[in-house]
């Protein structure tokens, strides 16, 4: 068996922005409420997460207090910023020190682009739940995003970057809703080595089932790994720009991540009651849905709107397919 691909993921941002909270909700089954008892991270906390058998994420959760960050940028610079696959930088939208936050971010970007030029950069503007009610159009988020893109451009210019490298990508997040899953699913999607093959298999199975959508979830985190459906055979981040219409009704672009959040919560409640979540099937007037284990490390959701399709047929196809998927 080939050894799994190892990817170094840096989790950075000012103290209290929510880095350890995110990591704990996604990878350690914490609820958002549980994170209130987390203490500040001292220096760097490393952990390894195995994902889908073929991928190991080496997560470096870098404590965000100024003294630590100054060290990362000086004596620890080579250790921290070399061989990075992805930087996830977390901002607190409620921060009152935005100018200072940006200066630190710029220093980090320089260090990263110099030491790991190919690294992907994702910025999560967190704690959106605290501002969404006063600012439903998310103007503050858009302003912050535009400042961040400006910083990225300045860094590239100074490093005489020819523009080949990807620009940073920004997501609004909150640990209290599915936006956290949306952001992390998009990030992880880019790290899975054979993702186009997985998506091709998913599409093949969806066609066989006469289904409109098929979605693959990782079984522990319930992050969305791949999607297939008429407008869905793409990088999940592209969906942000896309109008998805369904018979005149606009579909919720975070509908699968909502399912991630709901099922994860349900699994947690089940295990507290010494029960195990095995799967879900439902038949509505014009729609059949199943959400079943596909392999040891994945669940699959299939949605059909063809009235001829029976739940049993979908289950049979998934059972047959599981033998071909690892
Ligand atoms: P350091 O370890 O010091 O670098 O901080 P950190 O970035 O890891 O912050 P941490 O995850 O410890 O979170 C600090 C506090 O913010 C905790 O009390 C969390 O419950 C809270 N928090 C994190 N994310 C959110 C969010 O999306 N919304 C709200 N309202 N609170 C959050």
TrEMBL record:
InterPro entries linked: Gtr1_RagA (IPR006762), P-loop_NTPase (IPR027417), RagA/B (IPR039397)
Keyword check for Hydrolase: no
One Pfam family matching this protein: Gtr1_RagA
Signal sequence bounds: none
UniProt keyword annotations, A-Z: GTP-binding, Nucleotide-binding
Source organism, top-level taxon: Eukaryota
GTP-binding as UniProt keyword: yes
Role description: GTPase involved in activation of the TORC1 signaling pathway, which promotes growth and represses autophagy in nutrient-rich conditions.
Family note: Belongs to the GTR/RAG GTP-binding protein family.
Subunit structure: Component of the GSE complex.
Protein name: GTP-binding protein
Native organism: Kwoniella shivajii
């Amino acid at each position: 068996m080939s050894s799994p691909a190892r990817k170094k993921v840096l989790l950075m941002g000012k103290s209290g922005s929510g880095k350890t909270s995110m990591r704990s909700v996604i990878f350690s089954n914490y609820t958002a409420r549980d994170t209130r008892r987390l203490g500040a991270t001292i220096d760097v906390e490393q952990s390894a997460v195995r994902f889908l058998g073929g991928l190991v994420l080496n997560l470096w959760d870098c404590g965000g207090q100024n003294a630590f960050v100054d060290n990362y940028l000086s004596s620890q610079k080579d250790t921290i910023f070399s061989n990075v696959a992805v930087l996830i930088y977390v901002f607190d939208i409620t921060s009152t020190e935005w100018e200072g936050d940006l200066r630190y971010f710029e220093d980090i970007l320089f260090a990263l682009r110099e030491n790991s030029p190919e690294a992907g950069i994702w910025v999560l503007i967190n704690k959106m739940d605290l501002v969404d009610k006063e600012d439903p159009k998310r103007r503050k988020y858009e302003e912050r995003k535009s400042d961040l893109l400006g910083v990225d451009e300045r860094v590239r210019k100074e490093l005489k970057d020819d523009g080949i490298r990807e620009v940073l990508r920004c997501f609004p997040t909150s640990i209290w809703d599915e936006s956290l899953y949306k952001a992390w699913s998009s990030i992880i999607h880019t790290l899975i080595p054979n993702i186009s093959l997985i998506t091709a298999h998913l599409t093949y199975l969806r066609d066989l089932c006469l289904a409109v959508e098929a979605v693959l979830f990782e079984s522990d985190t319930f992050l969305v790994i791949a999607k297939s459906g008429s407008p869905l055979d793409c990088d999940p981040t592209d969906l942000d720009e896309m109008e998805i219409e369904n018979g005149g009704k606009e579909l919720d672009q975070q509908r699968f991540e909502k399912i991630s959040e709901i099922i994860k919560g349900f699994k947690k409640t089940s295990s507290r009651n010494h029960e195990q979540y095995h799967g879900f099937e439902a038949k509505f007037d014009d729609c059949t849905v199943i959400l079943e284990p596909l392999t040891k490390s994945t669940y699959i959701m299939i949605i059909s709107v063809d009235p001829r399709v029976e739940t049993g047929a979908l289950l049979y196809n998934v059972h047959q397919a599981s033998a071909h998927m690892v």
